[in-house]
Amino acid sequence: MYTDYYTDVEKQMESGWSFIAIIGLNIMVNTSMMVYTSALMVKNLVKKLRHKYRVWKYKREIQRAEKLYKDGEFDPTLHEDRFVQKVYNNLKAHNRDIQQSQANSTPNGKSY
Question: What pTM value is reported for the model?
Fold first, then answer.
């Protein structure tokens, strides 16, 4: 169609411009899909990093509360984080439950 054997110049021009329009549309669609998927990947990466940061932060706070509990330095009158107070109270309740269950059990582990 784009050779010298086809003499209708108007048809050549129309088909050439329509071919350019199809290629341009194809480029736009593919580029927009790449941008969209890249944006989703970045969004998921940010979510994962935020989650990892939160887990790291909570682990650090739990370790801090456990250290305060073990050292006996926890003072609830101080303005500690609520999370640390909650972990400390949970540790205290857990140890109290363990002590109660050990006091209620028999020496050989069988209850009568």
Answer: 0.50
Taking the C-alpha atoms of residue 18 and residue 16, their distance in angstroms, rounded to an integer, is 5
**Unique residue bearing structure tokens 């209850």:** 111
List pLDDT tens digits, range 29-77.
999 999 999 999 999 999 999 999 999 988 887 787 777 777 776 666 5
For residue 17, pLDDT over 70 is answered with yes
Token reading at 104: 């209620």
Q: Could you tell me how many residues make up the chain?
A: 112
Q: What is the CA radius of gyration of the chain?
A: 35
Give helix 9-71 / helix 82-104 axis angle, nearest 10°: 50
Is residue 68 within 8 Å of 87, Cβ to Cβ? no
For residue 74, how many other CB atoms are within 10 A of its CB?
20
